[in-house]
Specification:
Helix content is 28%, strand content 36%. The protein has 345 residues and is an alpha+beta fold.
Length: 345
């Protein structure tokens, strides 16, 4: 009988062990992959994975998934900051998930409802999870029909339009609006913060209505229109202090503004020897059409007599309509917060 060499036996045993270990590794790894895939098909497991992503600050993927769950126009920065504010002091291990309806879960921490999650299934039947913000802000934007509006760098389609070819809201104080600019009205809902509004086309800007928080989009106006704002603003400011007459105000007489100012009682203002303007600044003027515009003006108005003096820090938003080659006030709003000096006092 032949002797079997001891070294040869050890070699065979080593090969068998290596093959067994390798086979076990592949089996375990395959089982692990199957388990991971299976877990991703269960809502609670998907939610758990979602919160692990938050804990690990994997916010880029979270934001991308949020757009798949629910189309929104929030910027990535705003969305991530809002998530951090919700979950910053939360122990992920102590969260409770309560299913409230199909694919919607309430997240409870320390016996308090802190958020809501919505889940959808992807094409491969895996759940995608996103936090739903329901207490956001809504915004109205009015713009010419021939431009494309961008919200936080997202292009708006026609589904956001709620009115077509209507008179811009800042001209609704006119009795006759036939010459007023026509716009499309867009409604943006449930934004976390005030949006960044722009246009796909160049040469346009945006101004916020100080009365109703609408946003108007129009062409950037040339600086040679500043004098029109300055002269009109001075005429309006002079009337209450009896330094100017009603006839000097370039207003459309059939308008809410004119009806308000013509009934203003300026008889109470005391006589004074000095009235002068300074720090005049016209800004954010846009053309809503070839014959209409809106913009802001701030200025300081010093009234002084031998016994007293007062420096008014004024902020106006003025809407103009060009009638027979003359710019007339079509709308007028006082917002002294536009003047930075009021914020310093």
């Amino acid at each position: 009988m032949k002797k079997i060499k001891y070294g040869f036996v050890l070699t065979i045993i080593s090969i068998v062990l290596a093959l067994s270990i390798t086979s076990s590794f592949f089996i375990l790894n395959n089982q692990k992959k199957k388990l991971t895939i299976a877990e991703s098909h269960h809502p609670e497991s998907a939610i758990s994975t979602y919160f692990k992503q938050i804990k690990n600050n994997n916010f880029d993927n979270i934001f991308d998934d949020s757009l798949k769950v629910e189309s929104h126009l929030n910027s990535k920065k705003d969305y991530i900051e809002a998530l951090k504010n919700i979950y910053k002091d939360v122990d992920i291990q102590k969260l409770n998930y309560i299913k409230s309806e199909d694919n919607l879960y309430q997240i409870v921490y320390d016996n308090k409802l802190i958020s809501s999650l919505r889940l959808i299934k992807s094409n491969d039947s895996e759940y995608i999870v996103s936090t739903i913000f329901t207490s956001g802000n809504d915004y109205i934007i009015q713009a010419p029909s021939d431009i494309t509006i961008m919200i936080n760098e997202n292009e708006l389609d026609n589904s956001y339009i709620i009115e077509n070819n209507v008179v811009a809201s800042n001209f609704l104080g006119l009795t006759n609006t036939s010459d007023s600019p026509k716009v499309n009205t867009y409604e943006i809902k449930n934004l976390i913060n005030e949006p960044e509004i722009s246009t796909k086309e160049s040469g346009y800007s945006v101004i916020k209505d100080v009365l109703n928080d609408y946003y108007y989009v129009g062409k950037i106006a040339s600086n040679n229109l500043d004098t029109i704002f300055e002269n009109a603003a001075k005429a309006v400011a002079k009337y209450p202090t009896k330094d100017g007459g009603l006839s000097s105000i370039p207003a459309i007489t059939n308008s809410d503004f004119y009806n308000r100012i013509k009934t203003l009682d300026n008889q109470w203002y005391a006589p004074h020897g000095i009235s002068q303007f300074s720090n005049i600044n016209v800004n954010n003027v846009i053309m809503q059409s070839d014959n209409s515009m809106i913009g802001n003006i701030t200025m300081d108005y010093l009234i002084s007599s031998s016994s007293a003096s007062k420096n008014y820090h004024i902020g106006y938003q003025i809407t103009f309509l060009n009638i027979s080659n003359t710019w007339k006030i079509a709308g007028f709003a006082i917002d002294n917060d536009l003047n930075p000096l009021n914020k310093e006092e």
